[in-house]
TrEMBL record:
Amino acid composition bias (Basic and acidic residues), ranges on this chain: 572-585
Residue ranges constituting the Helicase C-terminal domain according to the UniProt record: 423-590
Matching Gene3D superfamilies: 3.90.1570.30, P-loop containing nucleotide triphosphate hydrolases
Region (Disordered): 570-620
Superkingdom of the organism of origin: Bacteria
Protein name: Type I restriction enzyme EcoAI R protein
Pfam families xref list: EcoEI_R_C, Helicase_C, HSDR_N_2, ResIII
Residue ranges constituting the Helicase ATP-binding domain according to the UniProt record: 185-354
Length: 821
């Protein structure tokens, strides 16, 4: 026991006092989880290197059974009042959705009862049985229909036997556990349609696997394992969960249906809708494959990406769900839809659990993003042909102004694609040429020309990697495209680096190493936009991928400013999938202008055909234009035009990590002003090496990198101080060379106050400053060339009377450098 003269620290308080109290209340070691991980800590990447905020870790979580938290505890040292930890523990309890929270310093215990809304001092921790009884009352599990079944389902343990690729345990995160708990609670209460909405990249497959494991371990179906059907519309959405989760977890009980053959005797089946619709032609049986099962054969049907084909009320795929309507059906999606004939909520009802992109980024489980909005001149101002101008193939170009909505659908300006490729190539030279990148184009033809432009702009790497540095992956590319896709998504593959696509990669593909999402086609569906952005949100720490960039040529990122981006249901687009689960076509049925999309006779835009075009975005009554496009069954192609990037702007997430972007300069202005220094005070502190480094560290922690700021202000020659003063208070900038000249001109007396050999050192430091910046105005500068040729650091410092004298001379030099307003 600690003596009266010694105040135990938090670690001692926990070990000597708190854990003893818990043991006295009947909690055993297996029920007490210390340092319980909740979040990984938000990643900040607004500028400079990625940094994580502190993760959320609860000092203790009390579990009635493994994986079932019933209370959270915040520990304080004995000298701190427990009341100081109330808000902190309330935050933990809210995250974990547990009804009870405690703060204790080992001498006093305060209980936060979220069920009753009361905070009270208690003499001891409740026992496990007492807290479990209160938990059941708080959750409504002590009485009513299904109460006992729900309790049994909640008590069934989660599975922690699976391994990640690096052989570490694949442990479910807190929100995945909550999603499973909410789902089994709904099932236990008799609900047969259950919707789970989790942002792309947050692990819906893990949720599905853990849900099936929990139901099986709880004996949900008496006397046997539950029979499960896992449905999706693409092979990758079926094969990935099957191979990475269910086969390792369930072994030979897992089977994939296909070819019209229904192998019975398994209890977990995976299938494409397309496969279930087909019959086995060779045996003369005209029944669809799903009809070869009894309607009550399956106990559970999991519908992955349930916002797509099966969401439409009159779709063939909905027939499969209705056939198995006696089973409990679980819908999984990141983007539910609500429209007249396609309503995810009408079928599955309101979600029992939601986890948003915003939450995923704030918790540090998803990669934050930056947005580079790029305006090409013809997009910004439109393009109009000269009178009588013809395209590359001699077709007359109807005289009108063509805008961004027309490009690549009605008319293609060759240089526009080449300029976008040049810009992207320059950006990759700056940020990393081997950074995995997806470029979304209008259609296969546009993707082909973008591939060519990028291939030519990166001829050195195209030659080095045998032509696989840039590839096109569309439905037109068939099996070779799928081979490229398999290599592109591997975490250990070097190539392909740039995948140019139209719509094929917009959803359903797990690609954690992707660092750049390039939007070069208009997007008029919120659902598709969220799915595309989801290609970059996955983290891959082993490859130092903690963020991603969105390069937006078409202002598609306006959706980030939509209040519905991270909330209510969004609009719909319709996919066409072939029998092998490959995306063939996507038709956007909700134009951004709110008008109905009515095609002229003869128009049918299908990516895999690539011939027909939709009507132009404007002037639909222009008979010459319609005739020119329809008769030649292709768009107009124009070259020889002056095309250039008009401007580009970097945007970052706002401070609350809401899915809204703000211009980097505005972000930087706010962060500099929050140093709470006047321009004069900032200049004075900047002049001293030690306080300057403190300011840089503070700015770095706020996401401001002075090198990035220099790029955004297009001024690489200015001193970082001048950039900060300019962005925060719009003060004029000076170049480093000009500051160095002013020191030599206006502070000559200061330089000449030193002996000639010391003065020579200061003159060299000024030269280094003018060339490289203020990081040269530090004592360590003596350890680099050319000073190393003049003597050792102690020898050179001796010219100033020693180390402290040299440090003082540097600070005085700094004041001279920065005395100018």
């Amino acid at each position: 026991m600690a003596s009266a003269s010694h105040s135990p620290n938090e670690g001692e308080t926990r070990r000597i006092l708190i854990e003893r109290h818990l043991k006295q209340s009947g909690w055993n070691r297996d029920q007490i989880v210390d340092e319980y991980p909740i979040t990984d800590g938000q990643i900040m990447v607004a500028g400079g290197r990625p940094r994580r905020k502190a993760p959320l870790r609860a000092d203790y979580v009390l579990e009635y059974r493994p994986g079932l938290p019933v209370a959270v505890i915040e520990a304080k040292r004995t000298s701190i009042d427990p009341g100081d930890g109330i808000e902190q523990v309330k935050r933990y309890a809210k995250k974990l959705q547990v009804p009870f929270a405690y703060v204790t310093n080992g001498l006093k215990i305060q209980e936060v009862d979220r069920d009753s809304g009361k905070i009270a001092d208690v003499g001891a921790f409740p026992s496990p049985e007492q807290l479990w009884a209160r938990y059941r009352r708080a959750k409504g599990l002590d009485e009513g229909p299904g109460a006992e079944l729900v309790a049994d389902l909640l008590l069934a343990p989660f599975d922690e036997s699976l391994l990640n690729w690096d052989r570490t345990l694949k442990v479910p995160r807190y929100y995945q556990r909550l999603a499973v708990q909410h789902a089994v609670e709904a099932i236990g209460r008799g609900r047969n349609r259950v919707l789970l909405v989790l942002a792309t990249g947050t692990g819906k497959t893990m949720v599905a696997y853990q849900l099936v494991k929990k139901l099986a371990r709880a004996g949900w179906v008496e006397g046997r394992q539950p029979k499960v059907l896992y449905l999706a519309d693409r092979n990758i959405l079926v094969d990935q969960p099957k191979d990475d989760y269910f086969i390792p977890g369930f072994g030979e009980a897992v089977h994939k249906l296909g070819g019209g053959v229904a192998k019975l005797g398994r209890h977990i089946y995976f299938a494409l809708y397309q496969s279930l619709e087909k019959g086995k032609e060779t045996d003369g049986d005209d029944k669809a494959l799903f009809e070869k099962f009894d309607p009550d054969y399956f106990d559970l049907v999991i519908v992955d990406e349930c916002h797509r084909g099966s969401a439409k009320e009159d779709s063939n795929w909905r027939k499969i769900l209705k056939y198995f309507d006696r089973a409990v059906q679980i819908g999984l999606t990141a983007t539910p839809v609500r429209e007249r004939d396609a309503d995810t909520f009408e079928y599955f009802r309101d979600p029992v659990y939601e986890y948003s992109l915003k939450e995923g980024i704030e918790d540090g489980f998803l990669a934050p993003y930056r947005v580079r909005r790029v305006n090409i001149n013809v997009d910004a101002f439109g393009w109009r042909p000269e009178p009588g101008q013809v395209d590359k193939y001699g077709a007359l170009i109807p005289d009108r102004v063509y805008t961004q909505r027309d490009f690549e659908r009605v008319i293609a300006i060759v240089e526009r694609t080449e300029e976008a490729a040049r810009y992207l190539t320059d950006l990759l030279h700056e940020t990393g040429r081997m950074n995995k990148t997806i470029v979304f184009c209008v259609d296969s033809d546009h993707a082909n020309r973008m591939r060519t432009a990028l291939h030519n702009a990166n001829a050195d790497l195209s030659r080095q990697y045998g032509g696989d540095y840039v590839v096109r992956i569309t439905s037109r590319d068939g099996q070779p495209g799928l081979v490229h896709l398999d290599e592109f998504k591997k975490v250990d593959s070097e190539t392909p680096v740039i995948a140019v696509t139209a719509k094929l990669l917009s959803t359903g593909v797990d690609m954690p190493t992707v660092r750049n999402i390039v939007l070069f086609r208009p997007i008029s569906s919120m659902a598709e936009f969220k799915q595309i952005i989801g290609r970059g949100t996955r983290l891959f720490g082993e490859g130092d991928k903690f963020s991603f960039d969105i390069i937006d040529f078409v202002y598609a990122t306006r959706y980030f400013d939509d209040p519905e981006f991270d909330g209510p249901p969004i609009k719909r687009y319709q996919d066409t999938i072939d029998d092998q689960g490959r995306l063939v076509d996507r038709e956007d049925e909700t134009p951004s202008d709110g008008t109905s999309q009515v095609a002229e006779p003869g128009f049918e835009y299908r990516e895999e055909e690539g011939g027909e075009l939709p009507p132009p975005a404007a002037d639909l009554d222009d008979e010459d234009l319609v005739s020119a496009v329809t008769t030649r069954a292709r768009r107009l192609y124009v070259d020889g035009q002056e095309v250039f990037v008009y401007n580009d702007t970097l945007y970052v997430l706002d401070e609350s990590s809401r899915p809204r972007v703000i211009e980097y300069r505005l972000f930087a202005r706010d962060q500099v002003r929050r140093l709470y220094l006047s321009p004069g005070e900032l200049r004075g502190r900047w002049a001293r090496a030690r306080s300057r480094s403190e300011i840089l560290r503070e700015l770095d922690s706020r996401g401001i990198d002075v090198n990035e700021l220099a790029k955004q202000l297009h001024d690489q020659d200015a001193d970082p101080l001048d950039l900060l003063l300019a962005v925060a208070w719009e003060l004029p900038r000076m170049t480093r060379q000009e500051r160095a000249r002013r020191v030599r001109r206006e502070h000559r007396a200061f330089l000449e106050s030193f002996a000639e050999d010391a003065q020579g050192i200061l003159e060299l430091i000024l030269d280094k400053y003018a060339e490289h910046g203020p990081d040269q105005l530090v004592p360590a500068v003596l350890q680099v060339y050319p000073f190393t040729d003049l003597g050792s650091a102690p020898e050179l410092a001796a010219r100033f009377g020693g180390k402290e004298g040299f440090r003082e001379a540097l600070d005085r030099l700094g004041r001279c450098v920065y005395d100018a307003a």
